Amino acid sequence: MSSAVDIYKKKTSKSAKVFEKSKKFHVNGVSHNIRFFKPYPFVTKSAKGKSISDIDGNKYTDYWMGHWSLILGHAAPPVATLVKKQLPSCWMHGTVNEMTVSFSEVIQNAVPVAEKIRYVSTGTEATMYAVRIARAITGKKIIAKIDGGWHGYTTDLLKSVNWPFEQPESLGLADESHIISIPYNDLAKSIQILQSVKNDLAGVIIEPVLGGGGCIPATKEYLSGIQEFVHKNNALLLLDEIVTGFRFSFGCLYPSMKLDPDIVTLGKIVGGGFPIGVICGKEEVMKISDTSTHARHNRSYIGGGTFSANPITMTSGRAMLQFLKKNSAVYNKIGNLGDQARKGLGKVFDGKAVITGKGSLFTPHFLANGITEIRNAEDASRCNTELLHRYHFEMIARDGIFFLPGKLGAISYAHSKADIKDLIAASDRFSASL
Question: pLDDT, tens digit, for every residue of 232-263?
């Protein structure tokens, strides 16, 4: 039987040539590190609904879904229709526009902490500004994050992302001494670490479901325990809901966990497929950035950027959220498909892997090194991550099912029960080959 690499190379010869040319212009041939996979990534030509097509004419059922941002699928008509309508009126103003006001009204009604809002163009900017606000308002310097937590490429938070967590993630980082890392879902150890820096702790930033770190939900007890410590010690709780916001229900995940964050960052889904980052915060916190009332030396500048709150993103985001608000069946459907995927994969891998996730998010972890449960990024990292990459690549090459190798899967409204059956059948064949 031909190897998966041979099959892939045979069916993606045009992609191979274009990618070779791409390497002449771009570092490693890509504009985002994780988009590269061996032997080379296919080159996309188009995408629609649940599918993504490459320049060789191959069509893949997509579970990467634009970095998990496309909850309705690619080129969703409810968004595309309104974006096309907006284009003739201009796609870039650089001034205040009415779409921003109506979009913010939708967000504020759905996210209780969003008493005041600022827009940026990426999730990285949103988390960067959240950290800046925490330091400004508390007068303290230390920020705690989670082992394996991913909050974008901001210099402040590019620490302890990959195992082993004590190793530097990058050259050129200057503020690592003011960033500490705590273990997810281990409250006792986390509190012990936080206790040692409590006098200079500005805030803790945390995802309620660890995305890039392994698709692992936090326990309510863990999150409430961290919140209690943070607020007791006059620090801020920063919730990164860039992945989880509007993913499981209309709004954020934190109200269902009875949390009271000071700032929540949003992105991905709320942009409707266009670039966005959102800083949502309590008014008493966000007012530190008000340039009309604070002198330069007494405020936190959290700007936006040239393309912040541009009319196309505001239109697409508003269209997305208005559709989700009116169609709660979206969450019922994708949540049920997620349950089916996790149950089916758990059955076919039968002790070889643990399937983590929540709602429409899922990923298998192939067990190794005595690991039997996945509580945090360390557990996930000590599993057989090479086998996970092989599994995802074989799905691409042999079955026309696309996961970005090593990353979690996201189900969209465009997927069907038949797609989940195909996923499970392909996974069964892979399991049998082990």
Answer: 999 999 999 999 999 999 999 999 999 999 99
pLDDT at position 296 over 80: no
Longest dimension (CA), the chain: 71
In this structure, are 263 and 379 located in the same domain?
A: no
- Is omega for the bond preceding 164 within 30 degrees of 0, making it cis? yes
Q: Torsion angle, CA of 60/63/65/71, rounded to 10 degrees?
A: 120
Alpha helix (H) residue ranges in 233-308 = 283-286
What is the per-residue pLDDT for 172? 85
Token readout for 182 is: 């705590």
pTM: 0.96
Residues in a beta bridge with 409: 362
Query: DSSP string of 346-391?
Result: HHHHTTSEEEEEETTEEEEEE--TT-----SHHHHHTS-HHHHHHH
DSSP character at residue 64: S
Same domain, yes or no, for 150 and 252?
Answer: yes
Cis peptide before 39 (omega within 30 of 0): yes
pLDDT digits (tens, 9 = 90+) for 355-401: 999 999 999 999 999 999 999 999 999 999 999 999 999 999 999 99
217: Cβ contacts below 8 Å, ≥ 6 apart = 208, 209, 210, 356, 357, 358
Do 148 and 179 reside in the same domain of the chain? yes
On the 0-12 / 13-18 / 19+ scale of CB atoms within 10 A, 1 is exposed
Q: Which domain holds residue 210?
A: 77-326
Tell me how far apart the alpha carbons of residues 144 and 160 are, in angstroms, rounded to a whole number.
11
